[in-house]
Specification:
The complex is a heterodimer. Chain A is mainly α. Chain A has 11 helices and no strands. Helix content of chain B is about 30%, strand content about 25%. In chain B, helix 2 packs across helix 3, helix 2 runs parallel beside helix 4 and helix 3 crosses helix 4. The longest helix of chain B has 18 residues. Classes of the chains: A mainly alpha, B alpha/beta. Chains A and B meet through helix 7, helix 8 and helix 11 of A and helix 2 and helix 4 of B.
C-alpha cells in the first residue's frame, strides 16, 4: 500500500480530530462539561451568531490597530537599531532581554492607565507584537550580505540608493518572518487581554461563558479565535509567497510538490 | 558597442597608474601593514593578472583601484585622473562570488548601474540585451539568479560590470567558486569578451594556470605586507588555446610564478 501524500495525510488528521471531537462526548467517554460535541458547539455558534459576530468585530478591530502599531513601530525601530552600530550595541541586548519578559504582567497597569475598553487591549497587544517585528527587522538588516552593499557602491549607488535598492529588498525575507510572528502574537495579546479584563470581544465571551460553565459557548468562542488565527496565517503566508518568489524558489529550485526535498549543497555549475 | 574601438587609437596610453601605494590597517594593537609601496602601470587594453599568497592584500589593492577603500599613502590614477570614490563610468568591478541581487532578474541585475543613473527604460533594456548577448546569455534575461548555474551567474556579473562601458574592468577572483571545468570555459569566454571589447582588465586569482592562460602580464605579490615582487610578461600568442597549457613555455611561466610565491610564503603555511 502506498502512503498518502503529505497534504492528503494532513486533511485526514484534521478529519480524524473532528470525528474525535464529535464522537467522544456523544459516547460519554469525555463528559460534556469538558468537551461538548462539535455539532452542539456549531449549533450554539449559529444560534448566538449575532453575539459572536459582534464580539469578533471588536476583536478584529483591536487586532488590526494593534498590528499597525506593532508592525509600523517594529519596522521603524528595528531598522534604526539594526542599521546604526552604536544603537545596535547599546539597545539590542536590552530589547532581546525584554522580549523574554512575560509582558502580560504589565496588562493590569495598562487597564489602570487606559481603562478596560479597546485602548488597553490595543496598547498591550501592540507591545506584545512589537518585539518580534523589531528584533527580526534589526536582524534582517544586520545580516545582509555585505557583498551586496559593496557591489552597489562599486556601481556608484548613493547612500539613499543603497538603502532603497539593496538594504530594503535584501531584508524583506527576515522582516516578513517577523511580521508573521508579530501578527500572531498581536492576536494572542488581544485575546488574552480580553479574557483578563474587558466587556467585549471574543476573549471576553470565553471568560464569561466559562464562569457560568457553558462549555459549548466557550468552545464556540475558541473556534472563532482559531478561525481568526488560521485566516491570518494563510494571509501572511500568501503575502510572503508572492513577495519572495526568488527566496522560496531558492529552497526548491524545481518547484517540486515535495517541500521536504533537499537541495544538494553543491549547486549546479 | 559603437565605442568599443576608441581605445585602439592610443594603444600605448596608460590606463592605470599606481604610485607609492601603502596601506596600514589600524587594529587594537597598533597598525597592521597590508600593502607596502606598490607601484604599477597598466597599459590600456592589457590583461593584467595579480597573484599572491592568501592574505597578501590582493583584494585590498583591487578595492582601492575601484575606489571602494582608501589607501593610507600613495596615488592611483585612472586615465590620468585620481580614483577617490567608485566611478562606474571609468571602472567596472566583478566580484568574487555571485554578488548578483537575488531579488532581480538577470536583465534587471545588468541594468542596475543604469537605474542608479536614471537611464530610461528603453535604453536600459537595449543595453542589457546587448550585454547579455555579449556574454553568451541571450534569452536568459528574465531568469533569476537562483535559476542560473554558477558560470552563468558570473557571466551576468561580467555583463553588469561592462554595461556602462568603462575602459577598465577589475575582477576579484571571479571564477574562484566555480568547478574546474566551468572555470576553464569561463576563462576562455572571458578572453573572447575581452578581445571583443578591448577593455583594460586587472584580474585577481589564486590559480597559476588561470593567471598564465589569461594574462599579458602577471604581477606576483609577496605575503603581508603585500609588495609586488615580480612582473612576468606572458609571451604566449593570442588567441590562447587550451593546447598551450601543455607547452614548455606555459609550464616555465607557471613554474616561475610558483617559485616566487613559494619563496614569499611563510614556511609551513604553503599548500
Amino acid at each position: 500500500m502506498r502512503w498518502p501524500a503529505p497534504s492528503t495525510a494532513r486533511w485526514l488528521i484534521l478529519v480524524g480530530l473532528l470525528a474525535f471531537w464529535e464522537l467522544m462526548p456523544r459516547t460519554k467517554i469525555i463528559p460534556e462539561l469538558f468537551l461538548p460535541a462539535l455539532s452542539k458547539t456549531l449549533t450554539v455558534l449559529y444560534t448566538d451568531r449575532y453575539d459572536y459576530i459582534e464580539a469578533l468585530g471588536v476583536t478584529i478591530y483591536e487586532v488590526a490597530i494593534a498590528m499597525v502599531f506593532a508592525c509600523g513601530l517594529g519596522i521603524l525601530v528595528g531598522a534604526v537599531v539594526g542599521g546604526v552600530a552604536l544603537l545596535r550595541n547599546l539597545l539590542l541586548p536590552i530589547f532581546s532581554s525584554l522580549y523574554a519578559v512575560p509582558i502580560v504582567i504589565l496588562y493590569p497597569i495598562f487597564t489602570a492607565w487606559l481603562g478596560i475598553g479597546s485602548e488597553s487591549k490595543i496598547a498591550f497587544a501592540a507591545i506584545y507584537g512589537f518585539f518580534p517585528v523589531m528584533l527580526s527587522t534589526a536582524a534582517g538588516i544586520r545580516t545582509i550580505d555585505p557583498q551586496y552593499v559593496l557591489a552597489a557602491r562599486s556601481m556608484g549607488a548613493t547612500l539613499s540608493q543603497q538603502i532603497a535598492r539593496v538594504i530594503i529588498p535584501a531584508s524583506i525575507p527576515t522582516v516578513l518572518t517577523g511580521l508573521r510572528l508579530g501578527g500572531a502574537l498581536t492576536i494572542i495579546g488581544v485575546v488574552v487581554a480580553e479574557m483578563l479584563t474587558s466587556a467585549a470581544g471574543i476573549g471576553y465571551l470565553v471568560t464569561r461563558y466559562r464562569t457560568i460553565l457553558d462549555s459549548p459557548r466557550v468552545f464556540a468562542a475558541i473556534l472563532m479565535i482559531l478561525a481568526l488565527s488560521v485566516l491570518f496565517d494563510v494571509l501572511a503566508r500568501s503575502v510572503e509567497k508572492r513577495t519572495l518568489v526568488w527566496q522560496t524558489a531558492c529552497r526548491s529550485p524545481k518547484r517540486s510538490r515535495s517541500h521536504l526535498q533537499t537541495v544538494p549543497a553543491g549547486a549546479p555549475a | 558597442m559603437a565605442n568599443v574601438t576608441r581605445l585602439k587609437e592610443r594603444p600605448e596610453a596608460t590606463a592605470i597608474e599606481v604610485a607609492g601605494l601603502s596601506h596600514v590597517y589600524s587594529g587594537a594593537e597598533g597598525g597592521v601593514a597590508a600593502l607596502e609601496d606598490i607601484s604599477m602601470e597598466v597599459v590600456a587594453g592589457r590583461f593584467v593578472v595579480i597573484v599572491g599568497p592568501s592574505g597578501c592584500g590582493k583584494t585590498s589593492l583591487l578595492m582601492m583601484l575601484a575606489g571602494l577603500r582608501h589607501q593610507t599613502e600613495g596615488t592611483i590614477l585612472c586615465n590620468g585622473r585620481p580614483i577617490q570614490e567608485p566611478d562606474p563610468g571609468r571602472v567596472g568591478v566583478v566580484f568574487q562570488e555571485a554578488s548578483l541581487f537575488p531579488w532581480l532578474s538577470a536583465a534587471d541585475n545588468v541594468e542596475f548601474p543604469l537605474v542608479l543613473r536614471g537611464v530610461s527604460k528603453d535604453e536600459r533594456r537595449s543595453r542589457s540585451e546587448a550585454m547579455l548577448r555579449l556574454v553568451g546569455l541571450e534569452g536568459f534575461g528574465a531568469r533569476y539568479p537562483h535559476e542560473l548555474s554558477g558560470g552563468m551567474k558570473q557571466r551576468v556579473s561580467i555583463a553588469r560590470g561592462l554595461v556602462q562601458d568603462p575602459p577598465v574592468l577589475l575582477m576579484d577572483e571571479p571564477f574562484a567558486a566555480l568547478d574546474e571545468q566551468t572555470r576553464m570555459t569561463m576563462g576562455h569566454e572571458l578572453l573572447r569578451i575581452w578581445s571583443a571589447t578591448r577593455k583594460t582588465v586587472v584580474f585577481i586569482t589564486h590559480s597559476l594556470t588561470e593567471a598564465v592562460y589569461l594574462a599579458d602580464e602577471v604581477l606576483v605579490m609577496s605575503a603581508r605586507p603585500g609588495r609586488i615582487i615580480d612582473r612576468i610578461q606572458v609571451t604566449l600568442p593570442r588567441p590562447r588555446t587550451y593546447e598551450m597549457m601543455a607547452t614548455d613555455t606555459f609550464g616555465r611561466l607557471r613554474d616561475r610564478i610558483w617559485q616566487q610565491i613559494r619563496k614569499t610564503s611563510q614556511p609551513g603555511l604553503e599548500g
